[in-house]
């Protein structure tokens, strides 16, 4: 069995309390909405990886804070960090085909339609990391 690949994600809210999501451009989860993030590169800290991945996928600059939670999905050991948006212009790039801010109703609609990655809504709810209404 191959070792788990360490990954990071960013939980970012705008000034209206909306959550930042990206639509995955590649597998796993191609076409589904998820938190922005990706693999931690050799020699990189989790915080460095979060900053790099969010810049690549969303065009935004963030400052990571505390670890919100972690999950294992397949061969990925994912550590999601609360982040503050500090600059940049929202633009999908790299592994993201789209990027947007969603409120709680939009997040629920994406989940009901089957457009979120596996267990994302449940996980965010468990972590008290849902967007504002």
TrEMBL record:
Record-annotated Nudix hydrolase domain positions: 3-124
Keywords: Hydrolase
GO molecular function terms attached to this record: hydrolase activity
Cofactor section: Mg(2+)
Keyword Hydrolase attached: yes
InterPro entries: Nudix_hydrolase, NUDIX_hydrolase-like_dom_sf, NUDIX_hydrolase_CS, NUDIX_hydrolase_dom
Keyword Hydrolase: yes
Pfam families attached to this UniProt entry: NUDIX
Superkingdom in the source lineage: Bacteria
Family according to the record: Belongs to the Nudix hydrolase family.
Protein name in UniProt: NUDIX hydrolase
Native source organism of the sequence: Amycolatopsis silviterrae
């Amino acid at each position: 069995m191959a070792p788990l690949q360490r990954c990071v994600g960013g939980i970012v809210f705008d000034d209206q309390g909306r959550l930042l999501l990206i639509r995955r451009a590649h597998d796993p989860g191609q076409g589904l909405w998820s938190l922005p993030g990706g693999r931690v590169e050799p020699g990189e800290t989790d915080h460095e990886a979060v900053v790099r991945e969010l810049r690549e996928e969303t065009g935004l600059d963030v400052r990571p804070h505390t670890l919100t939670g972690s999950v294992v999905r397949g061969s990925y050991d994912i550590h999601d960090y609360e982040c503050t948006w500090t600059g940049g212009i929202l633009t999908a790039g790299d592994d993201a085909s789209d990027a947007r801010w969603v409120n709680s109703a939009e997040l629920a609609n994406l989940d009901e339609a089957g457009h979120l990655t596996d267990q994302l809504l449940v996980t965010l709810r468990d972590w008290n990391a849902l967007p504002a209404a």
